[in-house]
Amino acid sequence: MTDVPFQEPTSEVSGLEAGRPGSSPGGAAGGGRRFVRTAFVRRKERFEAWARGVFLAMAAAMIVPLVAIVGHLTYEAWPSLELEFILDVPRRGMTEGGIWPAFVGTLYLVGLSLAVAAPIGVLAAVYLNEYARDNWFNRVIQLAVINLAGVPSIVHALFGLGAFVYAARFGYSILSASLTLAIMTLPVIIASTREALAAVPRAFREACWNVGATRWQTIRSIVLPNSISGILTGVILQVSRAAGETAPIMFTGAVFYKAIARGDLFAYRLDEQCMALSMHLYTVTTQVPNVRESVPYATAVVLLASVLLVNATAIGLRLWLRNRKRW
Amino acid sequence: MDTPVRIEVRDLRLAYGTREALHGLSFDVHAQEILGIIGPAQAGKTSLLRCLNRTIDFTADARMTGSVKVDGADVRQVKDVFALRRKIGMVAPLPVGLPLSIYDNVAFAPRCAGVQRRDELEALVEHCLRQAALWDEVKDRLHTLGTRLSGGQQQRLTIARALSHQPEILCLDEFSIAIDPVTTMRIEEVLKELRRTVTILLVTNLTQQARRLADRTLFLWKGELVELDRTEVIFSEHPRERRTYEYVNGMVG
Ligand SMILES: Nc1ncnc2c1ncn2[C@@H]1O[C@H](COP(=O)(O)OP(=O)(O)OP(=O)(O)O)[C@@H](O)[C@H]1O
Ligand SMILES: [Mg+2]
C-alpha cells in the first residue's frame, strides 16, 4: 500500500467509477440489482433462525437452576422464615432459635475484607493499566495477580492461618479472617477493575496527553469517571464470594458458637472470633444432632437473599451509572 | 529566512521496535510561518509530529534519536514535558470529543495548567470556540456532551481544545478530513490570521490545502525528507526533485 500514489479525491472517485473490475453488469446504471431468494439465501435464513433458537434455549436454561434453588430452599425453609429468625440467637444447643451472631459475623467479615481489598485492588489495577510499562517487574506483578486468582480457597485458608494468626500474631480473630478473605478477593478485584479501565478508549487518553495533562489528571477527569460503574460492579460481586467461603474463615477466625445478645449490631471486637453464616450452615447441617429441619434451609435462604440483594444493588447501580454514560 | 528559528530538527530518527519510520530528518521551522508537510500514507508525518511534543513517549517500543529543539531547548531534555505539550497545540486526525461537556472540553487544558478563575475560563472558551468556527453552533448548549456533536463539530472541538492552552506552535494533522469545505475555508482563514503569532505545522493529504496555506512545504516520503522549499517552488513545474513533482501531480507509482 505504501506505493499507491496519492490522488486528489476527484480523480479517485472517477477512477473508481470508470472501471470496476469483476463487477457484474446491471449495476446502478441498469436500474439496480434484483434481489432473488436463491436456495443459498433460504438455507442461510433457516440456519440463522435455528442458531438463534439454540442460543436462546441455552441462555434461557440458566433460569431453571436459579428458580429450582430458590424455590426448593424457600419451600423447605418456610416454617422458620420470619424476621425473628435473623434477629434471634441460636437456642437449645443451636437446634432452634435464630442466626443473629452468624449474620452479624458475616457482615463484619465481608465488610472488613472489602474495606481492605477494594482500595488496594483498585489502586493496583490503576497502576497496572495506566502507569505500568512493559518491563520484567510489571510482568512479575501481573503473573502474581493471575496466579493468586488461581489459588484454591483452602490454600488461602492455610496461608491466612500461618501469616495472620501466627506470624502476625492477630490470633484467631475477625481481623485474621477478614485479611485472609481480602487476599482471596484481591486478584479478582484487580482483574475486573483493569477490564473496566481498559474499556475507556485510548483516544481519550491521548487527547488529554496532547493538551499537557498529566497521567493523574487524565485518570481523575476522564478514565475513572467513565469506568466507575464497572469498577463498582466488580467489587460488589466479590461480596458474594467473600460471604460464601467457609474454609478461609474456619481456619482463621470463625467459630461454631459464640454467645452474643439478640439484635446487637456491635457484638464483636475485631480481635475476637465470630460466627459466620456459611460456617453456621455447615454446622447445623452436619455437626449438630436433632436440629429443627427448617433451620439449615432458612440459614441458606438468608445467606442467598443477602447476596442476591447485594448483587441486585450492583446491577441497579450499574444501570444508573450507565444511563449517565457519556459517549 | 529572516525570522528566528522555532523548531530545529537535526538527524531525527525514530524506530518502532526494529523498524525505522523516520530516517534522519533535518530541517528548521521559523517563527510565524506555516510549514506544510505532505507525503503519501505511512510517510511518517504523524510520527514526526508526535516526536515534537513527545507524545511518542506513550508508544512503548518507539525509540527516538537525533535532536529536536523547540526554542533552543532539546525536547528530550526538557524538565516539564507538560509545559512543552502546552506550548505545542496538537490536532489529531480523528475527531475526539472528550466525554465532558463542550465547555469542559475546552476548559480542560487551562484547568490542568492551573487556571481557575471562572471569568478567565469563560472568555478563553468563547475565544477558542470562535477561532475553531464552532461558537455559533454550540453557544446555546455549552453544557451538553462534547461526544454528542457531529463528527465535523467534534473535529472543530478538537481544534478549539488545541488552542485552549494558547500554544505558540500549532500542529494540525489532517485536521479537515471530517469537516465540510465551507467550514474548512473558514478555519483556513483563521489559520492565516493565527500565523502572525503562532508557528503552524500543517500535515495534510490535500496537497492543494498546503498550496493555499503554506509558506514553505516539506515533502516526506517513506520516512525521508525529499524536499523542503518555498511552496511556490514545490508546486511549480520545476521542484528540485522529480519525486516531488510526481507526487504533487498525483503520479508517484
Ligand atoms: N504505534 C506504532 N507502532 C508501530 N509502528 C508504527 C506506529 N505508528 C506508526 N507506525 C509506523 O510508522 C510509519 C509511519 O507512520 P505514520 O503514522 O507516521 O504515517 P503518516 O505519514 O502519518 O501516514 P498517514 O498519512 O496514513 O496518516 C508507518 O510505517 C507505520 O506503520
Ligand atoms: Mg498520519
List key phrases describing it:
heterodimer; A: 327 residues; mainly alpha; MetI-like fold; two-stranded antiparallel ribbon; 2 strands; globular; disordered N terminus; B: 253 residues; alpha/beta; Rossmann fold; four-stranded antiparallel beta sheet; binds adenosine-5'-triphosphate; binds magnesium ion
- The CATH architecture name of the largest domain in chain A reads Orthogonal Bundle
User: Could you tell me how far the N terminus lies from the C terminus of chain A, measured between alpha carbons in angstroms?
Assistant: 33 Å
Helical fraction of chain A equals 55-70%
Following the backbone from N to C, one meets helices and strands of chain B in this order, namely: EEEHEEHEHHHHEHEHEEHH
Walkthrough of the structure:
The complex is a heterodimer of chains A (327) and B (253). Chain A is mainly α. Chain A has two domains: 15-61, no CATH class; 83-323, MetI-like (MetI-like fold, Orthogonal Bundle). Chain A has helices at 9-18, 39-61, 63-77, 83-87, 100-131, 136-149, 153-167, 174-198, 202-210, 215-223, 228-244, 247-252, 277-287, 294-323; strands at 90-91, 96-97. In chain A, a hairpin with a 4-residue loop joins strand 1 (90-91) and strand 2 (96-97). Chain A starts with 8 loop residues before the first helix and ends with a helix. By secondary structure, chain B is α/β, with parallel strands linked by helices. Chain B has one domain: 3-Layer(aba) Sandwich (Rossmann fold). Chain B is built from ten helices and ten strands. A six-stranded mixed beta sheet of chain B has the order 6-7-8-3-9-10, sandwiched between helices. In chain B, strands 2-1-4-5 form a four-stranded antiparallel beta sheet, covered by helices on one side. In chain B, helix 3 (102-112) packs across helix 4, helix 3 runs parallel beside helix 6 (151-164) and helix 4 (118-131) crosses helix 6. The complex binds adenosine-5'-triphosphate and magnesium ion (MG).
